[in-house]
Amino acid sequence: MKPIHVGLLGIGTVGGGTFTVLERNADEIARRAGRPIRIDVVADTNLELARKVTGGRGRFGGHCRLTDDAFSVVGDPGVDIVVELIGGCGIARDLVLEAIAKGKHVVTANKALLARHGNEIFGAAQRRGVAVGFEAAVAGGIPIIKALREGLTANRIEWIAGIINGTTNFILSEMRGKGWSFADALAEAQRQGYAEADPTFDVEGIDAAHKVTIMSAIAFGHAMRFDDAYIEGINRLESIDIKYAEQLGYRIKLLGITRRTREGIELRVHPTLIPAKRLIANVEGAMNAVLVKGDAVGATLYYGKGAGAEPTASAVIADLVDVARMLTADPEHRVPYLAFQPEALVELPILPIAEVVTSYYLRMRVDDRPGVLADITRILADHQISIDAMIQREPDENEERTDIIMLTHETREKNVDGAIARIEQLPVLTGGITRLRMEGLL
Questions:
Q1: How many CB atoms lie within 10 A of CB 402?
Q2: Active-site residue, selected from the candidate residues 2, 102, 104, 211
Q3: Which of these, 132, 231, 310, 392, has the minimum number of CB atoms within 10 Å of its CB?
Q4: pTM listed for this prediction
Q5: Tens digits of per-residue pLDDT, 21-30?
Q6: Which candidate, 50, 63, 59, places its Cα nearest to that of 10?
Q7: CA dihedral 184, 186, 191, 193 (to 10 degrees)
Q8: Which of these, 235, 172, 227, 237, lies nearest to 198 by C-alpha position?
Q9: pLDDT for 58 beyond 50
């Protein structure tokens, strides 16, 4: 059959991986797609890098045209599918929308673009009758988008909780395993290439928020709502809290969480205590894992490499194969971008973090004298907060202060806010209260 002609925008880590895997496994991929898939043109501002990756190859490498003009690829009438691997929300948005306007199918790994502009992009694609594939935008090589959009389509999704940023999971693993500070663990992540020179998007939770925004829209059938997500990173997390959590039988992970409640949708990213016996609590290093709870299937776990050249390329090429298979299909009968038919998407409120109900870890440093604990528990009771577990560190000789760590039963976040504000006014308290959220994930 006639080959599928692909224009690749960006030949960096993922673009290079996509080129390599598609060439290496060309025969196998063609057997699955029903026709060959060929990269005909690559656009990148670094033509020297593009020549290094593509030059002198066998199947299509030697015949691949190179250009530094990405818009010329989008406008090329011979290109069937545009693969956008540039990243960011500037020129990438313009290129994707231009490709759609010209009737070309699009595959992208750009989670920021979709989380922020997905509503606009999917609307344009629906009107033009073209496909947008984005499996690689969430959790790298883990096929979580296909699982949510197709494999779990019989289920009413109840919640999703995911370790969806490998950099932060590596840092937390190093802090727990070696007792390092956040700064030391970050430096090691940068030394090993897991963290960028500027790690802000990762350690402040923004990258994870982009990904959980996409999963939430697919799971619950609503528009992308990135601006309504609550985001808290790990950059202020202290190693002492990881140690105390371990003593209490918990691990701390940066989770992206989205949950359906009677009041609306929770959409949040933050460090979270998880019982150590849960499988997801034992995901270490730079690996990713996503836990999905459906009403029919129960809890399902998806685990694997969330980044890297070839794992992410695996997801990009899976989208290319999907597009190749359905090129002749009626657009009205393709799998919807966000799992639900476009006209069936609903407006659901995103809960502010103050209205979220969960359990909490509270650590406070107080004077070691009688009556202190009674004052604290009285304030908690006044705010409808009950204590599930507590430890009090035995102070060293001649030490006048001690740490109290409390785990609470489920309560609304605004209750905890109020209690913390009152406790922090007590003269027996030194510094502020460390508050972390907890999830049982049952």
A1: 17
A2: 211
A3: 392
A4: 0.95
A5: 999 999 999 9
A6: 50
A7: 160
A8: 235
A9: no
Query: What is the C-alpha separation between 246 and 391, in angstroms, rounded?
Result: 12
Q: Above 70 in pLDDT, residue 328? A: no
Query: What is the spatial distance between Cα 130 and Cα 81, in angstroms, rounded to a whole number?
Result: 10
C-alpha torsion angle, residues 338, 6, 308, 24 (rounded to 10) = 130
∠ Cα 334 338 341 (to 5°): 60
The candidate with the shortest Cα–Cα distance to 34, out of 391, 328, 373, is 328
Q: Which residue has the tokens 């190859």?
A: 57
Contacts of 373 (CB under 8 A, 6+ apart): 392, 404
Task: Write out pLDDT tens, residues 128-144.
Answer: 999 999 999 999 999 99
316 vs 17: CA distance, rounded Å: 10
Token pair of 319 as six digits: 């989208």
State the CB neighbour count (10 A cutoff) for residue 231: 19
Is residue 339 very low, low, confident or very high in pLDDT (cuts 50, 70, 90)? Answer: confident
Q: How far apart are CA 433 and CA 396, in angstroms?
A: 21
- Residue 15 banded pLDDT, cuts 50, 70, 90: very high
For residues 103 and 80, what is the distance between their CA atoms, to the nearest angstrom?
Answer: 9
Q: Kindly state the tokens that stand for 37.
A: 């898939």
Rg (CA), the chain: 24
- 128 forms beta bridges with none
Q: With contact defined as beta carbons under 8 Å apart, do 273 and 439 qualify?
A: yes
Q: Take residue 355 and report the two structure tokens written for it.
A: 């209205």
Instruction: Give the strands of the sheet with 65-67, arranged side by side.
Output: 65-67, 37-43, 4-9, 81-84, 105-108, 132-133
The domains located in the chain, with CATH, are 4-133 (3.40.50.720), 144-305 (3.30.360.10), 357-438 (3.30.70.260)
Chain CA centroid to CA 162, Å: 7
Phi, psi of 180 (to 5 degrees): -75, 160
- 305 a catalytic residue: no
User: What are residue 10's phi and psi, to 5 degrees?
Assistant: 105, 120
Residue from 172, 206, 207, 176 nearest 186 by CA: 172
How deeply is 55 buried, as exposed, middle or buried, from its count of CB atoms within 10 A (0-12, 13-18, 19+)? exposed
Check: CB of residue 292 under 8 Å from CB of residue 157: yes
- Which tens digits make up the pLDDT trace of 372-419? 999 999 999 999 999 999 998 887 777 889 999 999 999 999 999 999
